[in-house]
Amino acid sequence: MAAIRKEYGIARYSLTLSIIGGTISFYHYLLQKVPFFQGHAIACGRIPCTRQYIN
Questions:
Q1: Are 3 and 21 in contact (CB under 8 A)?
Q2: pTM
């Protein structure tokens, strides 16, 4: 919607949200792939965070 209205100030906010989401995604990737992070994972509940669901 902001692109249609040519409001380019929204780019700052969308970039911030993209960086936050990318950081969380990278952390979950490390939990699944790197053995060091698998051993030090915080409890995720009934579904384990360290299991690889998609290869």
A1: no
A2: 0.65
Task: Report the C-alpha gap between 39 and 37 in whole angstroms.
Answer: 5
Residue with tokens 């915080």: 42
User: How confident is the chain (55 residues) per 10-residue block, as mean pLDDT?
Assistant: 75 89 90 79 70 70
C-alpha to C-alpha distance for 53 and 17, rounded to whole angstroms: 25
DSSP-assigned letter for residue 6: T
Question: How long, in residues, is the chain?
Answer: 55
Instruction: Give CA–CA dist 49/32, Å, rounded.
Output: 7
Residue owning tokens 């060091």: 36
